[in-house]
Amino acid sequence: MSNHVESMSVRRMDTLLVILAVGVLFLCLWYAFAYVFLVPYAGVDFDAQWLVLAFDDACGTHPAWCAANRDSLRIGDQLLVIGNITHEEYMYDRTVVPFAGYKAGDWVPIKLMRDGVVLETRWQMLGPTPARQLVRWSLMLPFFPFWLAGTLVLLFLRPRDTRWQLLVAFNYLTAIWWAAGAASSTQVAASSLVLHAVTWWLVPVYLHLHLLVPTPLLTRHRRYLLPPLYILAVILAILELNQALPPKLFYVGMFLASIGSLGLLFARLFLRASPLARLAAGQMLAGIAFAFGPGIVLWIVPGLLQAPQSGMLNVYLMTFAASLLPFFYIYAPYKRLLGDLEFRANRALSLFSFLVVYLTAFVVVFVVGAQRVSFTPASLGFALTVSMFFVVGGLFLRAPFQRLLDRLAYGTDHNPDDILRAFTNEIPRALNRDALVRLLTREVGPSLLIRQSALYLWKDGQATLFYADGVALDPEVDASEQVRQWLAGVKRYRPPQSELGEVSPEEQEMDWVRLAVPVEVGDTVLGVWLFGRRDPDDFYPKPDIELLATLANQVGVALETMRLIEDLRQHASALEKAYGELKELDRLKDEFIQNVSHELRTPLAVIRGYTDLFLEGLLGEISAEQRQAFQVVSDRVDALIRLVNDILSFQQGPMIPLVREPIYLVELAQFSIRNAEILVQKMGRKEKFQFVLEASDDLPVIWGDYNRLGQVFDNLLGNAIKFSPEGGTITVRIRPCTYQFISQLGEGSHQQAIEVTISDQGIGIPPDQIHRIWERFYQVDGSSTRRFGGTGIGLAIARNIVQAHGGAIWAESEVGVGSTFHFVLPVQELPVSSEGGGTYRNVPTPYQEA
Questions:
Q1: Strand 462-469 vs strand 661-663: parallel, antiparallel, or unpaired?
Q2: What's the whole-model pTM score?
């Protein structure tokens, strides 16, 4: 219920605000309409003292009117009576309109004073002309930027505090003051009375605004100063509406409002104000200079140089320039609350300011030049030369002017390209945490005047503090939820929450963050980079946000590089440890096998030797029965030796227990290639080898033992390295295929499989030795002796693992060219199950290719 009531209240307030905005616009448009359509067009301009200033240039379109009024009035004449209205009546009755009641072509009697002599004459009314109506519209237009700025503040800016109220009042009252003031010389629709009354209302509003914006001044004295000032302004405004004050007294109000405001702004530049206050005050003063500077220059400079003024061109340019003031007054105090609009507002103000300054200089050059150049072909050359100079100069001066405005707006002057270039040069050297933190806190922060920053790493929904600079953060505190919120609103300036309303103690603790930038690599978020206090006003404009986002991408690459290096170090350490253990195990295994083979073979060899001696008759004569008996013994000893050889050389077809899991052979090959690269690096031969992996797309998944199949890759790659003394390219190819596997019963079936080939450019294997490379020990027959030799256990292990997976392995080689090892593994939809917790598979016999 309370939420509904609150919503109704908000809607009612918004409706009232819209009515206020429309009412102010209607009032301003009414005065514009009255000035353009209700005020008579006499064809002569005069000021409030009825001093003739100028005549309409209508001789070309109205020659009869021009001839009728020739010598009737002159510039500088002091008008005393217009029709039946005297100047005294005009001054003390500010509802009287000169030339009221006269139409185009009517003759108006006029009494005037010229050179101290009172004269009487007649003046024929000109009536409205398009040129004169355009002039009046142009004099009215400056009210619209103030109304627009006030409406933007009224409807869109938050919070709705005293500063908000004053800024709305400042813009709306100024809009009314300008609209009524433009028509006040004619006194149509009581415009003069409204001008005088609003002027007194401007005094407390202007002073109050500049006491509060951009930062509060005289905090203790405002409560005693402002209420009497507001009361006095209301009284004086009422007296003005009743014409109870002298006509020129309102100039005192204009003086107090303007000089008081300027004084309060300048005070912040010289008092011990904060950098934020000085920067905002400078921006507001710049807005005043851009708004009124062109008018001052175009009226004063030609006068000092005794050059003719540019007439209506001055009016148009001053009207254009005046529109800058309200937007500078919004931008300065609300810059940090504009969000994404800040950059657009900055660029728009910069462009308009540049045009104002540039056009003012252009007009001054032409006004001064026109005094010395007559309208001849030479004058055309002068005009073209000056125009070309300003056009070309604008191309080069726009960027420096933008940097000047950026320094005025942000208080900083840095070149993003230089910072990015320096950071890019240094980031490759930051390969550990200390080096990266030192780069971020000693290079990036000071370059951008950043005083507070921190970096949280983000992984699996958990936040870890990487570093904190200028702000006390407890690394033990879980900031995961807060980091999640920051990641939801990255790359946006975060104004202080205290400026937007009340904040909780928890929010106040983290309110130091002004900007959060994600640290990413690809689509992976590695962390969030936080920025807080920054000189001079804690603000981060869009160009700096984009620069920090670019730097954050490089920080992400550095973090990922650090992680990969650390992983490689750990893997290298583990591999080195495993390699040492494997070497020790291999040594113990070889020693055991040698001892067992010695214990088994020695007595058998002795028995065999004696048997051969008896059979050859070297130990004496034996009978036929004895020879037959010794032959039986010799045959049994040979059989026993072959059995021992079979046991020692894995010829019995071992049963290898496997763990079945889905495996992507490409990933497994990549891991083994990295291990091989580390191996050749440790051997000091890294530059001699190049590893190439070629794999087909969309390879199916196989079920097998990840570690054991990885051992097959490792053993085959290690064999390629070992027998490639000159180095070269080692190529691993993986492709799908179809093979017919023949079981031990002789039955075969076509089956989908994956073929892996590992090729080297080594010394090669002699053709007559290929079939022996799978044996740990193999027998070499000679003409008169029998002996045992070996090539290593790695290939025998690789063969047994492949066969245990239901696959097959073979080799092809050419001496001096290199060797290629092939193995195929069947693709199964589901892993083969077995009893006892392990999975076993019979080793098949050699295969036939389908």
A1: unpaired
A2: 0.57
CA angle 312, 317, 321 (to 5 degrees): 150
The per-residue pLDDT for range 552-586, each reduced to its tens digit, is 888 888 888 888 777 777 777 777 777 676 666 66
Secondary structure, 3-state, 488-526: HCCCCCCCCHHHCCCCCHHHHHCCCCCEEEEEEECCEEE
Cα angle vertex 472, ends 470, 478, to 5°?
A: 130
Least Cα distance to 288 among 307, 264, 316, 310 occurs for 264
Spatial CB neighbours of 647, under 8 Å, sequence gap ≥ 6: none
- Find, among 53, 27, 316, 37, the residue nearest to 191 by Cα: 27
Q: What is the pLDDT of residue 777?
A: 42
CB 132 within 8 A of CB 56: yes
The predicted structure's pLDDT at residue 601: 53
Tokens coding 624 = 């036929």
Rounded to whole angstroms, what are the CA distances from 416 to 74, 412, 421, 542, 548? 61, 12, 8, 12, 10
**H or E element at residue 750:** strand 748-759
Burial of 489: CB neighbours in 10 Å, binned 0-12, 13-18, 19+: exposed
The stretches in the chain having pLDDT less than 50 are 375-378, 380, 646, 649-655, 744-746, 777-791, 831-850
- Give the tens place of pLDDT for each residue, 774-809: 765 433 333 333 333 334 567 877 888 888 888 889
Q: Which amino acid is at 441?
A: T
H runs (alpha helix) in 242-340: 250-270, 275-304, 312-322, 324-334
* Cβ pair 699, 660 in contact under 8 A: no
The amino acid at residue 588 is L
Residue 438, strand partner residues: none
φ, ψ of residue 10 to 5 degrees: the values are -65, -45
